[in-house]
Putative atpase nucleotide-binding protein
Amino acid sequence: AESGNLAGVRHIILILSGKGGVGKSTISTELALALRHMGKKVGILDVDLCGPSIPRMLRAQGRAVHQCDGGWVPVFVDQEQNVSLMSVGFLLEKPDEAVVWRGPKKNALIKQFVSDVVWGQLDYLVVDTPPGTSDEHMAALDALRPYSPLGAVVVTTPQAVSVGDVRRELTFCRKTGLRVIGIVENMSGFVCPHCTECTNVFSRGGGEELAKHAGVPFLGSVPLDPELTRCLEEGRDFIQEFPQSPAFHALSNIAQKILKETPAQLS
């Protein structure tokens, strides 16, 4: 692959999950915003063909994607232009359309997505991948491998079922030679909007236990924040409201650990 469009990208992080519904797209977005708060220039590549939800979270739905000589130009989602987004969602005629394609066509789109987006200079590119260890998953990894990704952040929820799926995901990383930066446990408690006490709705600590067992770092737990959910549902400004959320503190700590993982001369 010609390193053309990714030549200015210093680090690529893949966000993986063993199954859908664990909040992988939310973690991808929140991690990108936490890195932005640390003064980094960040891109988000949303290759989750089944549910490209990030444009909605960042109020970028329906934005037109322009083409230049080098390929597609990503959409800036903040005024300072420190976060750019490219999503499959931008290419659908209507936001509610489904991508009903067979494997080869999906894989070709993913490969094109990886090579044909003109990112410019970025400190981090956060890639929201399709859930599971499917064909599309492999296509995303194959397309990114020539650019030596920094590694993968694996998202789970506290329940044992999700943890079992993640075990498979870790095996996938091992077999494909993708380094695991660490595990994030999402939805690991409910933060009361009135008294900010955190209650464990599900069991607790499954992600940490699994990380210990698998010998990979545990990056942290991210609580459920109903206020943040409401903000998304009502289409309010997530970028503005996120720093007030308890989830922001958790994600900042996780981002800090990822920065530490980045070789000093590169960060």
User: Anything to note?
Assistant: DSSP finds nine helices and eleven strands in the chain. The radius of gyration is 17 Å. The longest helix spans residues 160-176.
